[in-house]
Design goal:
Number of helices of chain B: 2
Distance between the termini of chain A: 51 Å
Chains: A mainly alpha (199), B mainly alpha (76), C mainly alpha (101)
Oligomer: heterotrimer
Number of domains of chain A: 1
Order of helices and strands of chain B: HH
Structural class of chain A: mainly alpha
CATH topology of chain A: Ferritin
Strand content of chain B: under 5%
Number of helices of chain A: 8
Helix content of chain B: 10-25%
Largest sheet of chain B: none
Largest sheet of chain A: none
Largest interface: A-C, 33 and 31 residues
Radius of gyration of chain A: 21 Å
Radius of gyration of chain B: 18 Å
CATH architecture of chain A: Up-down Bundle
Strand content of chain A: under 5%
Number of strands of chain A: 0
Shape of chain B: extended
């Protein structure tokens, strides 16, 4: 079960509102390669995973992704808070404003609401871990695109942190995959059921 | 000859250097992916770790954005 | 009656403490993930446990003055958990580099 620590994993302190950035950063909140998808993906896959190391990895990285979701949500919130309607309109963020005001809602950068079709939980350990390696790369690349577009250091710093976490997660999933592969290749002892000859 | 000796020793890391990953993976199979295991060597201090985004220096991967000037992490 | 610099000092302390807690807690998380795939790495485990000790001391210190940081922590009267600002507000956060402005 979960508990909550009342501080962000990495501080988000954005002094200057920027509605344009808000509608782009939200991609990592509700977009196909974002943190919401990542957390539900890993937390769903853990039920059918094998080997203690891989199960723990899914459990704990899934949990960390929730903390990242919170960071991204904080960024969107701070980028919108204090922005005037004129600024929002000038930024081309009117569509988001009309649907959600200055609130935070999981959509992609193009305004498509979060869709579970963006991830899979196949119940097969090799499939799921391979999917996760891809997911971490997609998230890393998305953060790189975001960092390239942003120009406010208050926005760039947390994005860089989040990007680095994806690199680390990739390594952990890679190790989990090695452990699962080795486990599946080991010979395992099975006991044959005894045949009843009396029938 | 003295020069031959240099060829063999000059670019080798000292024997006691800690390498933070496995360098050789054995018994690899077809149709399987292999990421090398990381091995612990040094850890960053907590504040440095937070700034880098990881406590492991070997996993740090700097990115500054396309065409942006490189700014090292420790400069405040 | 509080002397001149005391209120400012208490507030600086809060952000400084939170900064330390954030840094130690994060290091703990990263080591935790490493241990999940390296359960027999003794050095890593030693480092992890010492970070745990560190984190507990820092948290206890913070919570003594500023109320609970997580479920399962004591609160004086009235219930402090609901205090603002919440972590997603600008005011609750700090800059990693340099002084608070």
């Amino acid at each position: 079960m979960w508990t909550y620590e009342k501080f962000l994993e990495y501080p988000v302190k954005i002094k200057k509102p920027n509605p344009k950035m808000a509608t782009i950063v939200v991609a990592q909140y509700g977009g196909p390669d974002g943190e919401l998808g990542a957390s539900i993906r890993y937390l769903s896959q853990r039920f059918s995973m094998i080997t203690p190391q891989a199960i723990a990895t899914l459990n704990d990285i899934g949990t960390e992704e929730l903390a990242h979701l919170e960071m991204v949500g904080s960024m969107v919130h701070q980028l919108l808070k204090g922005a005037s309607i004129e600024e929002i309109e000038a930024a081309g963020a009117s569509a988001y404003y009309v649907d959600h005001g200055r609130g935070v809602y999981p959509v992609s950068a193009s305004g498509i609401p979060f869709n579970a079709g963006a991830f899979q939980s196949k119940g097969d350990p090799i499939v799921d871990l391979t999917e996760n390696l891809a997911a971490e790369q997609k998230a890393r690349a998305t953060y790189e695109y975001l960092i390239s577009v942003a120009d406010d250091p208050d926005v760039i710093e947390p994005l860089k942190f989040l990007r680095e976490r994806e690199v680390v997660h990739y390594q952990r999933f890679g190790e989990a995959l090695r452990i699962v592969q080795d486990h599946l290749q080991e010979p395992h002892l099975f006991i044959m059921p005894k045949t009843n000859f009396s029938k | 000859m003295a020069k031959d000796k240099n060829i063999y020793t000059v670019n080798c890391p000292p024997v006691d250097t800690c390498i933070p990953q496995e360098m050789i993976i054995r018994n690899v199979r077809l149709a399987a992916a292999y990421v090398p295991y990381q091995q612990l060597c040094t850890l960053l201090s907590p504040m440095e770790a937070l700034k880098h985004g990881t406590i492991f220096p070997e996993l740090y991967s700097p990115y500054e954005g396309k065409d942006k000037k490189y700014k090292p992490v420790s400069k405040c | 009656m509080l002397e001149g610099g005391t209120i400012m000092d208490a507030k600086m302390n809060k952000k400084e403490l939170l900064k330390e807690i954030t840094a130690v807690h994060f290091s703990l998380i990263d080591l935790h993930l490493y241990l999940n795939t390296h359960p027999t790495d003794q050095n890593a485990l030693v480092s992890y446990n010492s970070l745990v000790t560190n984190a507990r001391i820092l948290k206890e210190n913070y919570e003594k003055f500023y109320g609970p940081l997580s479920y399962g922590s004591y609160s004086p009267y009235p219930w402090q958990w609901i205090n603002e600002p919440w972590p997603w507000e600008c005011e609750a956060n700090f800059k990693l580099c340099g002084e608070e402005r």
